[in-house]
Amino acid sequence: MASGRNAVTMSDGEIEQFLTDNMKVQIATIGPDGTPHLTTLFYVLEDGMVAFWTYGRSQKVVNLRRDPRITCLIEDGEDYFELRGVTIQGKARLVEEYDDIRALGARVAKRMAGDVDLGEFGDEIVEKQARKRVGIVVEPIKVASWDHHKMAGPPGSNKTEEA
After folding, report:
1. Measured between alpha carbons, how far is 61 from 101 in angstroms, rounded to an integer?
2. Torsions phi, psi of 43, nearest 5?
3. How much is the pTM?
4. Which domains, ranges and CATH numbers included, belong to the chain?
């Protein structure tokens, strides 16, 4: 039986399912003075990679143009034995072709709306927004995961974390 860090690490399949099931990502870019710049966005998976769109003049895009390093955190859970998450350190690839931005934005918007068809009105909004936005695909370099469900014993067992 695995112990410590290995005991809570997710398998590749568990990571893929976790990323599919969640839709908000916290991202950190590096500000001009080296300070992390954090924000939360909605995302989709593009070929298994986290992808999102944001305003082209946003601080995160300014930061990524200067330094493409990015860290992402997708997490959930309320109490200690429910905590799960994936951290992705990687390189941001900017998507700047209008049709590609529009397609990515449409996927993000549809996901935010509960995967329902956005209709003509929604399509018009995405088309207008795409002119102001940039897509970002996170090319992973290092991935870490944890799932504290794996530490919890059977229901009612009162198992606590081992040191």
Report:
1. 14
2. -140, 170
3. 0.85
4. 5-150 (2.30.110.10)
Q: Are 143 and 88 in contact (CB under 8 A)?
A: yes
Distance CA 76, CA 146 (A): 11
Encoded tokens for 26? 């916290």
What distance lies between CA 156 and its chain's CA centroid?
A: 33
Q: How many CB atoms lie within 10 A of CB 75?
A: 15
How far, in Å, are 48, 89, 127 from residue 56 at the CA level? 24, 22, 15
Q: Are 38 and 45 in contact (CB under 8 A)?
A: no
b/e burial code for range 143-161 (CB count within 10 A of at least 16 → b):
eebbbbeebbeeeeeeeee
Read off the pLDDT of residues 41-97 as tens digits, 9 standing for 90 and up.
999 999 999 999 999 999 999 999 999 999 999 999 899 888 999 999 999 999 999
